[in-house]
Amino acid sequence: MTEHPAATKMRQNLRRHASGKIQQIPTSTQNGGESLTNQINHHIDEHTALLRGTFQNSHGQPYYEDERPYVRWPASFGYTAWQTLTSNPVNVLLVFVPVGIAFGATHGNPTVVFILNFLAIIPLASLLSFATEELSVKLGQTLGGLMNATFGNAVELIVSIVALKDGEIRIVQASMLGSVLSNILLVLGCCFLAGGIKHKEQTFNSTVASTMSSLMAVSTASLIIPATLYASMGPSKPKDAKTDNILILSHGTSVILLILYGLYLFFQLKTHAHLFDEESEAATGGEGGEDDGHSETHILSPWAAGVALVLVTVAVAICAEYLVDSIDSIVQSAHISRTFIGLILLPIVGNAAEHVTAVVVATKNKMDLAIGVAIGSSMQIALLVTPFLVILGWIIGQPMSLQFEIFETVVFFLAVLVTNYLISDGKSNYLEGAMLIGMYIIIALAFYVYPD
Question: 427 near 327, Cβ under 8 Å?
Answer without folding.
Answer: no
